[in-house]
Each structure stands twice: as structure tokens, then as C-alpha cells.
Design goal:
The chain is built from 20 helices and 21 strands. By secondary structure, the chain is of the alpha+beta class. Strand 12 and strand 13 (355-356) form a beta hairpin.
Length: 728
């Protein structure tokens, strides 16, 4: 391919990359999309010499007057679009930009026409970057970068060729004028692509080095938000059920301080409610006050809702949460959130311990939440009675008008319970075992949803279970409240984070203990996970992990991240410089010692003998080093071969214990593995087919010192995975 045709082709490809960005980003009118696609197809065919050029030539032969008239009409349409149709500069400008691109593609006559097409393509890519943060834009940008460098390089070469041709046609031109550039060779092709790769690397370096600017003329402040339910100041019973089948992703939760969690169920607290009217929940303590902010930008929660059962800072859990654009200002976190860090001017809290922003974010954003969970103190677990403050009694013992059947049922359930904790556990277990979870509860709202759930339908979803438990606890004088949020159970193994979807919306109960604080109880039974194609699910998780990295490292990359990277580089440089100085000091001391010895013994040394000594020492040193490395490698290989299966089965057994503990089956220190296996099988019959074989494999390695084969280890992994999939 000669330079002229390659130049025209690269120019059209440059415009195509800009048009692709606009097409994938915005909902273009169908007529404009077809017009742009047909124009690019015709011009690409003409540039490649494919097919007949009759149609394109006829269009290209339109007079400039006709084209100018068409552009005046297009500008009038742009004004109408701006004032009455789109009523927004950016969409109307994009529509007009596509018409300009079509015009230039059919009128590439002079050098300035190509330059104008390049400017239009650049604005198109800029508009695409403004309107989207999706991963695919990275591919569009790379394609645009390749096309732009090729186009600018060919533009310069063809310009030089034209000037040389004009010079040769001049009467005064020398006979030995420079020849015209030949066709594109393989060397030229790969050299240009190398330049593109270098430019791309330079672009990445500039992106991570130049300070971020958090505002701009084209900054996107609008977009479709995900509509949630259950987080306003008033929540009608049944609103969460409407979104329990929506798979839309609402947030992703990472844990920087640890790779995995010991639980398969992650509670993300959003809002809490104290007043129940009989059909809806109301937050009577919804008055918000601003949290104090430290110099580092941390918003700290007051300790009004934290009991003495709370952990310490060292036992806390740090979460990095990337949240999509939702129609709520609530900030979520593992209960109970101790502090929040984010790019927020103000963070507020209410009397129920809920955290929120004073505005509704219009785009996705990220923040860090640090949580210190409450734990029930042993003294309150065993206490037969508890004294509650008047403020707690006032807000969390309120009951609507109900029949006495609820109280009678509650007393029947707790007749053998001796302590408030046993009462709460008894009510929770009764609801889990005697009622059926279902989203199909009808559309009509009964007069008393709680009584309808407890005595008539005996089926419902999380709101019904949680509301019933709160009412039953309050009838016997135990303060409790309803909490809404999300119950995440979808762990992404590739990115090490939880994916939280709309269908994970959940409601549970918090019970108050005077010294321990608010303790979580969930009366809703576990629901079997949806069965899906394993390969397709794995692919989806890989892509979602890539999207998260794209958002973390590109979209949400901020000036604070740049400072952290610079600080890490500086600390690493200081450490390397210190180590290098130490090594140089040691080398200089050894050199001084050898120099002194050599000066003292030089007169009596036989130089030939000295050469033999130095050479022999060097050879012996090399042999010793090789032998030592070989011995170390062989020892490590044998050690790994003998211990890999032992370590692996011990880790798998430990994971099984954590999993069973999360399902309510705890192993006492005095129990042997086989005793605990029989106990787990007796308490949860479905687990026996997985727990017992895995326990036998563990005992065979741990106590019998018999190594496992690769097939045995694979079987152990399958047993643990199958046990994880079974719900209790």
C-alpha cells in the first residue's frame, strides 16, 4: 500500500474510532447512527480500493454551495435541538458533531480538510470520555491512539512528498532531487507501531504523574441512578420484596487488610427504624448532625451506640466500597461503622447510628469504612434480667395496636428460655424453622401484616421475619429495632471482593444489651443459591474484577492516590539507598583489611603462587556456591513434596471449621476431629456426606503421617466446595 492510500485510510479510521466512542456512549438518533455508519463504510471501501467508487464520487462532486446550504440547515437543526428537543448542550453538540464529521469525510480535498477531520475526531473522543466510565472506552482510546499516531506520521510524510513533487516540477529544481517515499515496508510498519506503544506508555506515565483535577467543563453530573427501597425515613412493609429479583450491581466491597473473610454472609448496614405503625416503619430519630472531621479527612462516629462488647481498633474491619449511583444518600458498612473516609465535604449521622451524605450522589463513588463489631458479653449472655435506660425503653419498646395472639405465641415459644439472650435465640429459631421464605406473598397489604404472617400465611420474606421478631421481643420487654441494608454472599475469587446486587437487599434485627450494645440477630432462613452455568459465572466474575480495577486505577484515581504512590516510591528509594550504603561500607572495610595485609606481606609473596591461590579460591568459591544452591533446592523440593499436602489439608480442615461455625456449629477445644464430625452430622444431617470424608482425610495426614495423593487433595477441595454450597 502506498503512502497516499495509507494516509487516507488512517484518517478515516481515526474518524471511525471517534464515531465508535459516541455510538457506544450515547443513544444516538437512528438516522444519525445510520448516516455516520454508511459514510464511514463508503469512505473505508474507497480508501482500501474495494468495490465501486461511483456513489462516493457522485457525493464528492456535490458543489460547495450545496454542502454549505446543508450545513446551514444542520446548524438550524442544532439550535432547535438545543432549545426544544435535547435542551442540553452536550447531546445537541454531539448530534451536530456527527453531521460535521459526515461533511468532512465526503470533502477531504485539501490538507486543511484533514486537519479539521482530526479536530472533530478528537472532540468526539473527548465527549465519549465525558459520558462514560465503562471499561470498553479503554479499547476505544487505544484504537484512537494507534490511528492518531499513524495518521500524523503519514500526514507529515505525504506533505513532504507533495512539496518535493512541486519542487521537481519547478524549472529551477535540481536534477538530483530527493525521490518520493516508497510503499509502506514491514520495517516502517513495526517501527511506527513501536512508536505507538512508546507513546501509550508515556501517556500512562503522564496520567499517573500529573495531578488530578476534579472538575471540568464537560464533567458528567447526570445519569441513570439505580432505584433502591428501604432506606428512607419511612419504609412501608413489603417494599424490599419488589427488588429481590433485580440482579443489578449496587456496590463492590473490598477488604485491604485481609484477603478473605471467615463468613459467607456479609451484613452491610444502611438504616434502622424504631417506630412501627402497624403497616410501616418510621425512624423517629432521623434528625441528622454532621460528623467531626480530622486533618486526615476521617469522619469519626460518636460512641453513643457502641457498647462495651465492641472490639478494639486492632480487631476492626476495614472496607473499601465502590458504590454505584443510587437514589439514596445512605452510606453502607459492616455494623457498626466507626469511621468513614472519602471525598465528601460533609458526612452526617442520625440517632439510629445510620450514616449518610447531605445530598444524593449522581454518579458512582468510593469510600473507606472502618467497623468495630459489637460482641455479646458473656455476663449478659447468662444474665436472667437486664436493666434498660429510659431512653431505650421510650423508643424501642413501642408497640402498635395488635391482638393478644402475638403475646401468647411469644410466651409459648420462650417458655423454656431463662435469659433475654435465650429468648431472642428461641424466637429467631422458631421463625426460621416454622415459616417458609417466599417472595410470592400477593400484592394486597393486610390490615395487620405481622399477624397475617404469623398466623395465616406463614410465608414471607426478610421484612416479615424481622418485623415479627421485633414485635415479639417488644411484647416481652426486650428492646429491639429493624435494620435494612444488604446481605452479600457473592464472593469474587478473582478480585477478592464481594459483589452486592439489588436482590441482596435485606432486613434483620438488632437487640439491645445494656453493656454489649446492639447485637445482630437474623430470623430469616437461608435461601438456596441460584444454580448457574459455572463457566459463564466465572467469566462474568473475571470481567467484573477487571472493571473494578479499571475504576480503581483509572476512573477514581485521585491526587491522594498519587501522593500515596509518591510516598511509597520515596520510602522505597530511601530504604534501597540505606542498604546500598551499608553494603558499600562493608566492602570498603574488607578492602582496607586486604590492602593492609597485602602491604605487610607483599615483599615475601611469590607472585605465581599468589595467582594460583587466587584462582583456586575463586574456583572453589564457585563450586561451593553451586553445591550449596543445589542442596538448598533439593532440600526445598523434598520438603515441599512432603509437606504440601499436609499443609493443604490442614488449611482445608480449618476452612471447614470456620464454615461450620458460621452455620452455628462450633467445635469445642476438647472435641476430637471425629467427635466433632459426628456432632456436626447429628445437628446438620446434610453436612455429614461432606464433613466426615474431609475429617478422615485430615486425620490420615495429621495423625497417621500418610501423605495425600493429588486425587485425594482434589477430593478434599470438592468436598469443601460442596459443603459451602449447602445452605442450613
Amino acid at each position: 500500500m502506498n503512502l497516499e492510500r495509507a494516509f487516507e485510510l488512517s484518517s478515516v479510521l481515526l474518524a471511525a474510532s471517534g464515531f465508535a466512542g459516541l455510538t457506544l456512549t450515547t443513544d444516538l438518533p437512528l438516522l444519525l447512527a445510520i448516516l455516520g455508519f454508511v459514510t464511514l463504510t463508503v469512505r473505508l471501501a474507497q480508501s482500501c480500493g474495494v468495490g465501486s467508487n461511483r456513489l462516493s464520487n457522485q457525493v464528492l462532486q456535490f458543489s460547495p454551495t450545496l454542502w454549505n446550504s446543508l450545513m446551514v440547515m444542520a446548524f438550524v437543526a442544532f439550535v432547535v435541538d438545543l432549545l426544544w428537543v435535547s435542551q442540553d448542550l452536550l447531546p445537541a453538540g454531539i448530534h451536530f458533531l456527527i453531521i460535521l464529521m459526515v461533511n468532512k469525510l465526503f470533502n477531504l480535498r485539501e490538507r486543511k480538510d484533514f486537519l479539521q477531520l482530526y479536530a472533530i475526531s478528537f472532540v468526539a473522543v473527548l465527549a465519549s470520555a465525558t459520558l462514560t466510565t465503562d471499561l470498553w472506552f479503554g479499547l476505544v482510546f487505544v484504537a484512537y491512539l494507534f490511528a492518531a499516531i499513524w495518521t500524523l506520521l503519514l500526514y507529515h510524510l505525504t506533505k513532504e512528498s507533495h512539496e518535493a513533487r512541486l519542487a521537481m516540477t519547478s524549472p529551477s529544481s535540481p536534477v538530483n532531487a530527493s525521490p518520493f517515499p516508497g510503499p509502506i515496508t514491514a520495517r516502517f510498519f513495526w517501527t511506527t507501531n513501536g512508536i505507538v506503544v512508546g507513546a501509550f506508555c508515556l501517556t500512562i506515565a503522564i496520567f499517573f504523574v500529573i495531578p488530578r483535577i476534579g472538575a471540568g467543563f464537560f464533567k458528567k453530573t447526570r445519569g441513570e441512578v439505580i432505584r433502591t427501597s428501604g432506606f428512607s425515613e419511612k419504609v412501608d412493609l413489603g417494599v424490599i420484596g419488589a427488588i429481590k429479583e433485580d440482579p443489578s450491581i449496587v456496590m463492590r466491597v473490598e477488604f485491604p487488610d485481609q484477603e478473605t473473610l471467615d463468613t459467607d454472609r456479609l451484613y452491610l448496614r444502611g438504616a434502622a427504624y424504631d417506630l412501627y405503625t402497624g403497616r410501616s416503619w418510621v425512624n423517629s430519630l432521623a434528625y441528622r448532625r454532621s460528623l467531626g472531621q480530622t486533618a486526615e479527612g476521617t469522619f469519626s462516629m460518636p460512641n453513643v451506640s457502641r457498647g462495651r462488647g465492641a472490639g478494639t481498633q486492632s480487631t476492626g474491619l476495614l472496607q473499601e466500597i465502590l458504590i454505584e449511583a443510587l437514589d439514596t444518600s445512605v452510606l453502607f458498612g459492616v455494623p457498626l461503622v466507626d469511621s468513614v473516609v472519602g471525598d465528601f465535604p460533609v458526612v452526617q449521622t442520625d440517632g439510629m447510628g445510620g450514616i449518610s451524605l447531605p445530598y444524593f450522589p449522581s454518579t458512582r463513588f468510593q469510600y473507606r469504612a472502618h467497623s468495630i463489631p459489637n460482641h455479646l458479653l458473656e455476663e449478659e449472655r447468662l444474665a436472667t434480667s437486664l436493666n434498660y435506660p429510659d431512653s431505650i425503653r421510650k423508643h424501642f419498646l413501642q408497640l402498635p395496636t395488635m391482638s393478644t395472639r402475638v403475646t401468647e405465641l411469644t410466651r409459648q415459644i420462650i417458655r423454656q428460655a431463662k435469659t433475654p439472650h435465650q429468648i431472642a435465640v428461641a424466637i429467631k429459631q422458631h421463625l426460621r424453622t416454622n415459616y417458609r421464605y417466599s417472595l410470592d406473598v400477593g400484592t394486597s397489604v393486610p390490615v395487620s401484616p405481622v399477624e397475617d404472617f404469623l398466623f395465616l400465611r406463614k410465608t414471607g420474606y426478610c421484612e416479615h421475619y424481622a418485623t415479627a421478631m421485633v414485635m415479639m421481643l417488644r411484647t416481652v420487654g426486650i428492646p429491639a429495632r429493624l435494620v435494612t441494608g444488604f446481605l452479600a454472599g457473592e464472593w469474587n475469587d478473582f478480585g477478592n471482593y464481594y459483589t452486592v446486587r439489588q436482590r441482596d437487599a435485606h432486613a434483620w434485627v438488632e437487640v439491645y444489651f445494656p453493656r454489649s450494645g446492639w447485637i445482630t440477630f437474623d430470623p430469616t432462613p437461608s435461601v438456596a443459591a441460584l444454580v448457574s452455568n459455572h463457566l459463564w459465572t466465572a467469566f462474568g466474575r473475571v470481567m467484573d474484577s477487571i472493571r473494578l480495577k479499571w475504576d480503581r486505577l483509572v476512573i477514581q484515581y485521585s491526587f491522594a492516590d498519587q501522593l500515596a504512590v509518591a510516598r511509597g516510591i520515596r520510602e522505597g528509594g530511601d530504604s534501597a539507598r540505606t542498604q546500598l550504603s551499608s553494603l558499600l561500607s562493608i566492602a570498603l572495610r574488607w578492602a582496607g583489611t586486604w590492602r593492609t595485609w597485602f602491604a605487610d606481606h607483599a615483599p615475601v609473596l611469590d607472585w605465581r603462587l599468589l595467582g594460583w591461590m587466587v584462582g583456586s579460591s575463586a574456583i572453589a568459591g564457585v563450586i561451593a556456591m553451586v553445591w550449596r544452591l543445589r542442596k538448598r533446592w533439593m532440600g526445598r523440593h523434598l520438603l515441599e513434596q512432603g509437606l504440601t499436602t499436609q499443609v493443604a489439608i490442614i488449611q482445608l480442615y480449618g476452612r471447614m471449621l470456620h464454615l461450620l461455625a458460621s452455620r452455628g456449629l462450633h467445635k469445642n477445644p476438647s472435641d476430637t476431629p471425629l467427635e466433632f464430625s459426628r456432632f456436626a452430622t447429628r445437628e446438620w444431617s446434610h453436612s455429614g456426606q461432606y464433613v466426615q470424608p474431609l475429617t478422615h482425610l485430615y486425620c490420615r495426614v495429621r495423625f497417621g503421617k500418610v501423605p495425600l495423593s493429588p486425587e485425594d487433595l482434589a477430593q478434599a477441595n470438592r468436598l469443601l466446595a460442596s459443603l459451602r454450597a449447602v445452605r442450613r
